[in-house]
């Protein structure tokens, strides 16, 4: 099928709708959790599984889903993922107890993984011109920022005005429209066939290793870093992932050919993304908690307070990043964006108990415009070495490091903040002061993660050559 310029941009709209729905679902649920707990009878410990049940399959299945997209067709995987996600959203809205909602959230994570893993792979095969590709990636990144901002505000509005099931029902019309439009809009690729890479053993090892690893990280806050539970499961997860690497080096048809990591831009961009998103996503969670628990903001007030950051990130990614990348290169744009984000986190290390929004928080929201430079630049660099046969794999790998980075960041920084708060409470500090001290420590570590990403960008990444393929098999 020959694709005109207009048909390519129509396809991009379909892909962006899935990105919007996925990000929207991740942010909209957080403000509705108290209402869900009240209506369905979740325990305080069990409440976290509303998020974790989605995060574990999403992060664990991305790599497998990306490779399967190369084998059986990326369009097929995209349609299947959207259909599963939409049906699971309807099931979540109809949930009458914790068990059913957790099962529905797990299915949502599966659907998100199947669809999201191949989005960038489809995008880079549709847009081969470097300027058009940069513009397309910027638009796709913009929808992610839009989903985050809409979710924070919409979650509060829907929960307060209607009821929490509507935070899931809002996905249904988006999902149905996306599937209907994707059928004629997306290229009907056949894939290279299961025989070219049906590595069942590798799939089991990497999926089990990633899921167990993410589960271990998100449970750290309950069990502690040095508990038998954390150390034992962490060791098993690392053993599974090590086994996967060995398998990929020796298998005749590996799930993830290790040659993909010979591209320094692919390897470096994925490492930089894991580091930077560990800090950025944790900021989104922790600063919202600071506003509500220390400053006394409501859910809707918190969403509105964070709206300037989301709007700036989206606007910069849509209108500025592609032009700057075309002129200066994605690496230079990434470095500049990371420098702005480090500045934002540095300001947050000094937040007071009685912060004034305009004085103490608005400057942070403005500096977070750097995220609009970082996210598209990372996507450009991470996919710069992807050839036609490996685009789904590179896309799945990029999505995996994104989700793992966010999971690790939230778990680690939340645990550090909670531990520091407990120490300050034990020393006699008031609750607000103790909470603020914990958040300050978390933001300092977040700044350190972003500095590490900055160092990787300078030391490893290079300006990509147009349409540079991944290294050929040895």
UniProtKB/TrEMBL annotation:
Keyword Membrane found: yes
PROSITE patterns: MFS
Residue span, Major facilitator superfamily (MFS) profile domain: 11-465
Membrane topology summary: Multi-pass membrane protein
Family matches, as Pfam families: MFS_1 (PF07690)
Gene3D superfamilies, alphabetized: MFS general substrate transporter like domains (1.20.1250.20), Multidrug resistance protein D (1.20.1720.10)
UniProt keywords, alphabetically: Cell membrane, Membrane, Transmembrane, Transmembrane helix, Transport
Presence of the UniProt keyword Membrane in the record: yes
Transmembrane segments: 12-36, 42-64, 76-94, 106-127, 139-158, 164-186, 198-218, 224-246, 267-291, 303-320, 332-351, 357-381, 393-418, 438-461
Chief location category: membrane
UniProt-annotated location(s): Cell membrane
Family matches, as PANTHER family: BLR6921 PROTEIN, MAJOR FACILITATOR SUPERFAMILY MULTIDRUG TRANSPORTER MFSC
Protein name: MFS transporter
């Amino acid at each position: 099928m020959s694709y005109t310029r207009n048909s390519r941009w129509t396809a991009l709209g379909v892909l962006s709708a899935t990105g919007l729905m996925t990000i929207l679902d991740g942010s909209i649920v957080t403000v509705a959790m108290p209402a869900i707990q009240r209506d369905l009878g979740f325990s305080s410990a069990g409440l976290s599984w509303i998020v974790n049940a989605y995060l574990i399959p999403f992060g664990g299945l991305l790599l497998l889903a990306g490779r399967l997209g190369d084998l059986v067709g990326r369009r097929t995987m995209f349609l299947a993922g959207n259909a599963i996600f939409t049906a699971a959203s309807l099931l979540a809205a109809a949930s009458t107890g914790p068990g059913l909602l957790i099962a529905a959230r797990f299915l949502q994570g599966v659907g998100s993984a199947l669809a999201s893993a191949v989005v960038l792979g489809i995008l880079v095969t549709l847009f081969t011109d470097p300027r058009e590709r940069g513009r397309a990636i910027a638009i796709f990144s913009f929808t992610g920022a839009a989903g985050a901002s809409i979710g924070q505000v919409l979650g509060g509005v829907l929960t307060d005005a209607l009821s929490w099931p509507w935070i899931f029902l809002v996905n249904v019309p988006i999902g149905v429209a996306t599937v209907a439009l994707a059928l004629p809009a997306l290229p009907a690729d056949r894939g290279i066939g299961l025989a070219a890479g049906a590595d069942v053993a590798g799939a089991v090892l990497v999926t089990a290793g990633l899921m167990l690893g993410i589960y271990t990280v998100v449970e750290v806050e309950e069990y502690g870093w040095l508990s038998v539970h954390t150390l034992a499961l962490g060791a098993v997860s690392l053993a599974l992932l090590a086994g996967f690497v060995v398998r990929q080096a020796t298998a005749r048809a590996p799930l993830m050919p290790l040659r993909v990591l010979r591209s320094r831009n692919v390897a470096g961009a994925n490492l930089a993304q894991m580091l930077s998103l560990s800090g950025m996503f944790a900021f989104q969670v922790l600063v919202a908690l600071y506003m509500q628990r220390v400053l006394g903001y409501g859910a809707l007030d918190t969403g509105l307070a964070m709206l300037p950051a989301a709007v700036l990130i989206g606007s910069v990614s849509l209108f500025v990043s592609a032009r700057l990348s075309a002129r200066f290169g994605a690496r230079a744009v990434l470095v500049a964006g990371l420098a702005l984000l480090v500045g934002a986190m540095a300001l947050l290390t000094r937040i007071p108990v009685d912060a004034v929004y305009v004085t103490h928080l608005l400057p942070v929201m403005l500096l977070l415009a750097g995220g609009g430079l970082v996210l598209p630049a990372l996507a450009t660099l991470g996919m710069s070495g992807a050839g036609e046969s490996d685009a789904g794999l590179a896309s799945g790998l990029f999505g995996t490091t994104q989700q793992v980075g966010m999971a690790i960041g939230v778990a680690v920084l939340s645990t550090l903040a909670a531990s520091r708060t407990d120490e300050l409470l034990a020393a006699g500090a008031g609750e607000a002061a103790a909470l603020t001290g914990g958040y300050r420590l978390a933001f300092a570590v977040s700044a350190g993660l972003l500095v590490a990403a900055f160092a990787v960008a300078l030391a490893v990444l290079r300006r990509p050559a147009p349409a540079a393929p991944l290294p050929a098999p040895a």
